[in-house]
Fold this sequence. Notes:
The chain is built from eight helices and 14 strands. It is an alpha+beta fold and 359 residues long. The longest helix has 19 residues. It starts with 30 loop residues before the first helix and ends with a helix.
Amino acid sequence: MNASPSQPHPAEWPETQALRDTAERGLPAGRHAFHREHLMAQIRDDIRTAAPVAPARQRNPFLRKTILLPAAACALAGAIVGGVALSGDDGDGTTPLATGPALTTRLGTVDAKGGPQLLDRVSLAAGTGDTDGPVVRDGQFLYIASKVASTYPKTVDDKTTVVSQELHDRQVWQSQDGKDGWLIEAGETSDEGMTLAGPHASSAAYDRLATLPTDPDALLRKIYEDARANKDKEVPIDQAAFVAIGDLLTESYPPAKLVPALYKAAAKIPGVVAVDDATDATDRHGVAVARMDDQNGQREEWIFDKKSLKFLGERTVQVEPSPDKNDPIKPGTVVFTSAITQRAVVDGNKQLPAEQQAG
């Protein structure tokens, strides 16, 4: 499944005009784009309340480094760590989740050559499953429910400790064109939730995903093109492409014909490995496809059921010591974890699948 050594590196492929999406220059991933609006709302609230400032960090994959903060807000961005406001009630009825000891895990054994083979099996399983996939009509919404938690450094009175959120629910609704949506997440929004509207949300919209090529080589060229246009300079291009695909596997609902192509495209990214054991946020064990980010010593893992090879969720694990000597995050720490619990197509924004079935 790997590209032949005689072929150019994917990042060196020439830009293909036919694949360039001139109308959509948003982020290539879904979940961190969803959080941009919420992040900025929190920053505005923190500016008004002058909350105590913790070290500025963005460990949570929802807050990828591709998010750009206004210069005036950067000094207060530390009040939002891993997507959680460290002050009290943030002014809109939300209350930060309680924190406890850092999440830790046993690091699975890596098979350096097993990533492409595992992705080939996953691709075959995806292609023989629900071949019809989601059918989204005008006016309908994609619904995705998950369990998530983050680990981050928290500073109080000049003392820094590593703490983790409680595992909590996250619910996202997104219209088929990405122009309308809703988010409900404990500790992040009020009980009623918040809107997810605007052009940045359309990068993972069903309508856009339906236009992506299903040929793995063409798809990977498109992914690298978007990654080059949007990535942070500190993030290696191969890692940016791997993360972009992972984002599409989590908080979006790709058409069935696209899913096998995503796995086959990921198999061509250099540095992709297999991990023999990994657990998602709900402690389901599985095998993982992963890639190490040498810039920070973290490994991004996509977790699949060992038997069915169904996608369960993902996590980010600190595998090697951070190059930053002052970084309190130690190897074996789970920086972020998620588990997909339900995906569905519903008829309206904020509608639950059970409500639709009852109707």
